[in-house]
Amino acid sequence: MLKKQFKFEIIDYLNDKELNEIIKLELKQKNISNYSHDQLLEMNNNSSINFIKCMSNNKLIGYLIFFKSYDFYEIYKIYVNNEYRKLGIASEMISLLGNKDILLEVDSSNLPAINLYKKNNFYEYSTRKRYYKNGNDAILFKKER
Fold first, then answer.
1. With bands split at pLDDT 50, 70 and 90, how would you rate the model's confidence at 33?
2. What are the residue boundaries of the structural domains of the chain, listed by start?
3. Distance from CA of residue 53 to its chain's centroid?
4. How far is it, in rounded angstroms, from Cα 144 to Cα 123?
5. Do the Cβ atoms of 54 and 89 come closer than 8 Å?
6. 26: pLDDT confidence band, cut at 50, 70 and 90?
7. Architecture of domain 2-143
8. Full DSSP string of the chain
9. CB 3.0–4.6 Å: which of 23, 74, 77, 108 could bond 65 by disulfide?
């Protein structure tokens, strides 16, 4: 049902329109892990970084940015517009990553994200104390395939 309602696509390289849509969404977010315009351009030009986008009625409503290595993926960012949260979109994007181990880090205060990762069978394997500028710890999660 989710796939009929929303369109998911894995992208190696974002076109200008897609990149600008992600940049706008990054600017709207009020957290410390936003990517700048220059960082997103650099990621877009890196062949090891890919994107998963989720569209609804030709509107970008979510995306996942990930690094692909030979034997694992590392999620850099998952974002879903507020009005589309809790519909399984983030879980669906994670599931599209396939049959490799997945690594990620999350701010220890981001309980919705932590719950999402635990629901998707990630486990905590380490903590980086006072990692973020605000003094919060980074929790490192892993999902083994």
1. low
2. 2-143
3. 10
4. 9
5. yes
6. confident
7. 3-Layer(aba) Sandwich (3.40)
8. -HHHHSEEEEESS--HHHHHHHHHHHHH--STTPPPHHHHHHHHT-TTEEEEEEEETTEEEEEEEEEE-SSEEEEEEEEE-GGGTTSSHHHHHHHTT-SSEEEEEEETT-HHHHHHHHHTT-EEEEEETT-STTS--EEEEEE--
9. 77
